[in-house]
């Protein structure tokens, strides 16, 4: 018999709010309970952005702005977020920063790796491969906080890869979250090879790595089928891999 008391781990899940971040809720019935928190409405977004910019500049915020900033939970990630409600649905709003640059850059990251990694050649090659992999599977959430490093006691090195999720999209062009070459964030072979020197790779070496990853990923359909995905899910995922002809 399963105990659902508050002291049991399942009890903690059942007592969690149904509107928690991650789109997961737990209960004993199919109909979720009504939200228990007060959320901002989308009509408040302009005021929210103004309040957030005040905080960035260390300016005082009034009581109304403070209430807007405190309403609802915040999610982590590359920039601050808040939860807003619109037509009985919850959305994540990401705030722009007053000092936003046009984009982040794999090239800048590679340059920093040369400063902090004693023997960076293998890590630079690995970063290049991760960049290519992200583009091939249409993972466009490859912002700087999704690239981690571990300190071994005398040097930093790339952490194991994480948070890579194929993202089905329409169209034949993909843009990564960070600049990859002379043509910005656009993911195609010309741009990939345009600054392969930043990763200590010749164009021939970079092209070979690109072709190797592309060849392995051609089996994506068989891989996902083996994991038990339904035909409908497989059809949906095609949008993450059907841009290769334009590369």
Helix content: 25-40%
Low-confidence stretches: 1-6
Number of helices: 9
Domains, number: 2
* Measured distance between first and last alpha carbons: 56 Å
In angstroms, what is the radius of gyration?
A: 22 Å
Mean pLDDT: 84
Form type: globular
Tally of DSSP β-strands: 9
Q: Strands across the major sheet, in which order?
A: 1-2-3
Q: How many strands, what sense, and barrel or not for the largest sheet?
A: 3 strands, mixed
Counting helices, strands and paired strands, the structural category is alpha/beta
What's the order of the H and E elements? HEHHEEEHHEEEEEHHHH
How much of the sequence lies in strands comes to: 5-15%
How would you explain this protein's 3D organization?
This protein is of the alpha/beta class. The protein folds into two domains: 55 residues, no CATH class; 143 residues. The chain has nine helices and nine strands. α2 crosses α3, α4 packs antiparallel against α5 and α5 packs across α7. The radius of gyration is 22 Å and the shape is globular. The N terminus is likely disordered.
